[in-house]
Fold these 2 entries.
Entry 1:
Amino acid sequence: MLYRETGQFKTSYAADMAIFPIRQDRIALGALLIFAFVGVPALDAFQVWPFGGEYLIRAILIPFLILSLAAVGLNTLTGYCGQLSLGSGAFMAIGAYSAYKFGTGVRIPLEIFTIDIPPLPVFWCILLGGLMAAFVGILFGVPSLRIKGLYLAVATLAAQFFFDWLFIRVKWFTNYTSSGSVVAPDLTFFGLYVNKPIERYMLCLIFVTVFALMAKNLVRGNIGRQWMAIRDMDIAAELMGIRPLYAKLTAFAISSFMIGVAGALWAFIYLGAWEPLAFNIDRSFQILFMVIIGGLGSILGSFLGAAFILVLPILLDQVPHALGIAVSVETVSLLVFMVTGALICWLLIVEPHGFARLWSTGKEKLRFWPYPY
Amino acid sequence: MRAPSASDIAAGEILLSIENVSLSFGGVRAIRDVSFDIKKGEVRAIIGPNGAGKTSMLNVINGFYQPQHGRITFKGETRTKMRPYDAARGGIARTFQNVALFKGMSALDNIMAGRTLKMKRGFLWQILRVGPALTEEIEHRRRVEEIIDFLEIQAIRKVPVARLPYGLQKRVELGRALAMEPELLLLDEPMAGMNLEEKEDMSRFIIDVNDHFGTTIALIEHDMGVVMDLSDRVVVLDHGVKIADGTPDAVKANQDVIDAYLGVAH
């Protein structure tokens, strides 16, 4: 009864093309944003359940936000442009290590002169990390002009292994630390020192909100239509004047940029100190699963997928403890693996198009509820 | 705009001419030394039995196939082969024999995608979606809505095309081609698989496009009634060779054409 479009007449194309043309959606999103920006800090300030301690923010909300951003990035490429990529971990690593290098100063001695960039402020480091990832993304996107589908996935897998190797073997990237592990610079944003979990959370939230909005704008604009046209029927798209080169490489660039920024955030804000293993192939798969389970071709789906993949195991972990069953930690973690795997299989059988499709089907049903039509 | 009469077309300027085009795939010679032209404002039908090379000919015209021999002159510019991008930019649009819509997109987005070449704002504007980018988007939406009105598909504009019945998909595909505001519209079997009523609707749209927008149309169709009614001139292909070219009446009376369609005793 609550979810009705009846009576909401649009008198301009601008109103019809708004992100959320339905009033109830706007209210719901507004409420969610207010909760995320105001409610969470307020609850944290008063340490109201479940915000007691820092666990929820530090171990769930921050990684959820950052990996959502990476999932949004991969979704623009795989979901919207149809280019399967297994290199997300590598692009996150490029973002992280570029940001690290820019944060600690870049010094490249050449024959004639030396490139010497002093340490930059953290904010610009993160964005430059994204830009470096975008640049590499374009390079590794070039094969997509020739190969498609699984073959392209193999080519991006090459990127993954190459950068895994590069950041372990080339000590320059880790500033010659003996262990290969590096520590992020102090997080000072425009004079504000960001240290407490709630501050880090707010920072991630701002990044994610801005980039998700930008991604949404792109996918519902002309470039988004070009991406989807290439995804759905590349021959017809080409004959309509859509250039595959431009469409695919912009998708690679924008996707890698967002994944690179997510990588920099992951390293600087979530991990603090990290080694190349943090961005290995498992990370690539994790993000790809988020996109598939959330829904290919949906920004909302990226968030739902990230929540499912990341939060579900953590919740399941708590179940035996909450029920008072005494089982060992190892048994629990194995059980969590099994249950999560089974749930993924079940979900993909019931709804192969992921949570985003479930969501839109639910909304369609809700429009008529409680009447059959 | 007034529909050009038969005599206008006969005297009219040539929009596209195909000269001695040959196309082969390995040992298969799909098109052999075919020449014909398409005049501005006419409806030009290409007919022939299955495997005659009709679709290959359309693919040569808009650059998807590149012929080994021959020349293509479009709007006074001669070249040995078209490129898809140049063809689209030059104003050649087409529909496909097996509907080639963008299945995951709504009817509206499909038609909007047809305006890609007309939209100029770069991606930085599109990220922000304010000012000129938004104005441009709204302006093109308005143009697309005109096409939606023209094709009478208002009710389905937000439906993903994969859910639409075949006849409507064909109509959306025509809309997508029209959104390019083409000078030359290539229609590959626009009425295949349709019932009589749908065929009549589609014929009406084709005539209207030709009349109102003055779009030149090249059309492949198997329904001879439709071909004879709609087209100004007909070219007949058989096994990649041109066997007849002329007005519908002349073609109908041509002995080679009758033999090609009905078979001939050897």
Entry 2:
Amino acid sequence: MTDAKITAKEAIMIVLTVFVSHTIVSLPQNLLSNTKSSTIINLIYVGIIIILFVYIIFRLFRNFGSLDIIDISEYLGGKVFKNIVGAIFISYFVISTSSLLREFCEGIRIAFFPMTNVIFIIFPFIIAVIINNHLSLGSTAKTISIILPIVFVSIVFLFIANFGHFSFERIFPILGKGFVDTFITGIGNITAFGGISCLYFLPPYLKEPKQFKKICLGSVMARFNLFYTLCYYNIAYVFIFCRS
Amino acid sequence: MDFKKMISSLFTYTPENNYDFVLLESQDSDKQTQNADLEKEAKNKTIYPSINVNLDYVKSKYNTMINSDVIIREFTINARGKQYAAFLLYIDGMIDTDIMNHYILEPLMLRSRNNLFDGDQNRVISEAVTNNITVRKVKKFNLPEYIMSCLMPQNTVNENTEFKELFNNVNSGNCALFVDTLNIGFDIEVKGFKQRGVEKPENEIVIKGSHEAFVENIRVNTSLLRRIVHNEDLVIENISVGDVTKTNCGLCYIKSIANSDLVSEIRYRLNNLHIDSMLSSGQLEQLIVDSNKLSLPQVLSTERPDKASRHLLDGRVVILVNGSPYAIILPAVLTDFLSSPDDSNMKTAFSNFIKFLRILAACITLLLPGLYVAISSFHPEVLPTDLLYSIIASREFVPLPVIVEILVLEISFELIREAGLRVPSPIGPTIGIVGALVLGQAAVSADIVSPILIIVVAITGISSFAVPDFSFGFHLRLSRFIFVFLGYCCGFLGIGLGIFVYVSTLCDIKSFGVPYTAGISFLEETKGHSYFLKPIWKRDLRANYLNTKKSHKQDKISMKWKYPFLKEEDIK
């Protein structure tokens, strides 16, 4: 069990892993299609809401020590409530990860395996997940802490290589389609931060539970900064193709 | 099998109910005891007149209860008709026993005619008689002078009043004589350890390092280690493994540096091996490691005493096996298998460049054949157009699929390598010519394989030889077949997933409580251990994952000659 304990930095990396997978399936472009050039301001607005929300989560978790959301729901409402909350989270994770995997595999199929059925592309991922599931969370966290910085560095290289194709005038008009689309309907972009739901399950696995606040705020800030940077450069990139 | 159980075992994480050793930080009490011992030692420097006190001090200093090669020979000296209790301190394997027996023990212990007269009888130097009164000038009996002058026909004998110098010389191969009632010790030259007779290492050749290698005799090996470490804190415990063969193993560590829990754990594992025989360090290695995932080596194996000593001074433990010229160093992490003993002998820039080349070599050995198969099967657009045409043209008349082609060549290469190990030396070079030129050229001419694949396999083979550790290189050679298969099935996707699973497995392995990937992650705080070396004056810390008793191995400013005007507190 000692091996399943993770440090604060590894916990932040686990939360950011969800961000990376969303980025690969063009989540920034989905955000841009909702709010156009006002995505920059919209992200700041949504980020502030998320930080407040995460702060509330931290304050609520603080009273429960190393318990996760399932244990807390059992404490509050018994086994019935625990099963309901557990079922909700299971269905959320199953739906979100399976749709993410499907979307990603569709992209791979189009690019590299046009004649192959998508199920044969999904299958190797499932094998990798099963093998990784038999290893401890600590080893998964270490793997992510090795691979994720390499992914970030490769993204930076992509930007550097395409620097000539950025046109920074494209960030205007700064309010995009208007105030309502930016601040009222644009609240839907909060789904970009859906990956923070794994924060609910982290407390039992932390080596130092007192660092939970640092993990919550650190992961949200890192995620916000990465999203902001990606969306900013997506707007500025002259070859961007928005869905609408 | 129950369906529910099958699904839950596939998709849920079940912690393994395995023995799990965790390397904890050294307890404060260990460090306090160490400090207390050092303070006590600083006070007790001079030799005592009482032999029992000297004997107790020597026994505690040299840990004779657990040290198997430190010998204390107690006997009685016959001097001028009187008998004095005495003992000799020496290290077995470092002395010449003939000299000790004939020129030290024999004259001291045996009675001789010249030695029989009464010691209380004083020697008359001069005598004068005046007025019927006889005045005699006598010389009192001086035991140390008598021993030095009359009882020890040995060329180099020195008297010392302090333990420190005596111990220093004992560690170098001399022996120390302590006699009751004397507050001096005799340092006697009796060195007899193996020197250049020891052969060169065959498999770990370096440019600037020493050219000595371990041999089969454990006592010679321990003497090699002792000569380099040169400190009384080096403990070599004797542990017997194997119910029938009772093979002697030496558990070596530096008591003031190595983590006590680590030493205890290794001792526990060695003492709990219920086997009939254990004939080599390779067998022992497989019996004591935590797991065997991906056949990755989890301990270092070396035939070089300088490499073993360096790791001892870093806080690791070395196991010597009688009958095997290879020592086991543990714990070992991934970066240790890509390091060579010569790295610390060269300038930092040179050694870091070579280290970078080794990482490249390891990646090429593991991935190049798989990448070639993936690119030629699924991703030809990655290659420049001219190169692509060249490859297609070379493969035009090859009837075999690329996977069969590459497996044929890789297996042929492995067969040639294996045959080269056992071929008699007169025809050894012939194998290289036959294998490389005749077979390779003939295969290309017969359109069985393409020329580009010969280049790929050759580069892979050369890269595998650049990996310093034999076991790790073997693991890479074996694992590349998995990546070839993955590349053939799924292209870059398969190779990417393979790399992910491979890295995950590496991160899951532990070597005696130390994570296998220590020092690799960018987020991990690794003091004292990184793969790329700092300049030697900055290598002042030991690896923090070893949790040694002494974290510093040199002062912050080690080159004091450069900064003569700095204060002590700035230097530390």
